[in-house]
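Notes from the 1:1 (GR / supervisor)

We went over the backlog. Supervisor wanted to see one worked example end to end before approving the batch request, so GR pasted a single chain during the call. The sequence is below; no edits were made to it. Supervisor asked that the structure be written out right there so they could see what the output format looks like.
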Amino acid sequence: MTTEETRQAIREPESIDGVSVTYLVDEVLCDIHTPHQHLIIADTVAYGRALFLDGLIQSSITDEVLYHEPLIHPALLAHADPKRVLVGGAGEGASLREILRHTKVERLVAVDLDPEVVAACREHLGAWHQGAFEDPRVELRFEDVQDTLAASPDRSWDVVVLDITEPVAEGPAVDLFATRFFAEVARVLTDDGIMVLQSGEVDPAGMEVVRTVKSTLEAVFPWVRMLHTYVPSFNAMWGIALAGKRSFDLLPEDQDRRIATLEGLRMYDVETHRGLIHWPRFLAEQLAVPGEVVTGEAGSKLITHKLESER
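Structure output shown during the call:
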């Protein structure tokens, strides 16, 4: 029997656009059903070691930097003085790793709903977190980020990073892509605060997801900007949303100086930054079309992937 015949495969749940991706796997290091989600850490054939939650790839060793550096640095550099940072979705620790490159950060509270996921990532994904969980500026909490926000005083955070999973039906993030959740984020942000949110797949064949995220954020925040990055292991361009109570200059004259203060970057520079914020014309035109405003009430939810029973 050949190696190809003995390899396992991870098939992602079908998206709302009818697309599913299959990853061939050489070895499964961790396969756990936690109380919140299904966790797999595996060595894939194409992209090396990768993390999957509820069947969806979250990051791979080959290209996680193409996701995590764009997720963190445009927002924190736009703020310019991020002292207090809240992260929803501690996960692999890679977002923490990037945030800690900013020397002005004094306190970083990292919240995750699932301690089993974080424990597995700390054990198997050291190349991602690089010891970030042990940094004295980091406080790790295992709780629902909604509870974290509820307990936070008004205007208590400079930056809120939401590196949360996609809103799979009945998944842990399905209630977070909604105006009632974003209103709580706005409450805890300082007047100069900025929020960053992973915003799902950017599909030229259908921009419903990013349009919905954009319009939902615009119902809460006066300033919203959408960025995009290409992540090969995701097989897609990916959206990143920035939002604030005031406008931010994403192309300041000293952007090169700001980026130069960050040590250890692998992909993010001035030209990359320009590419992240500049949308191809036909995609910009599609993005300008208003999307649904999701309130989070009974029938108003953003769902990006179907349940197995619905396929």
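Supervisor's comment: DSSP finds eleven helices and twelve strands in the chain.
Batch request approved.
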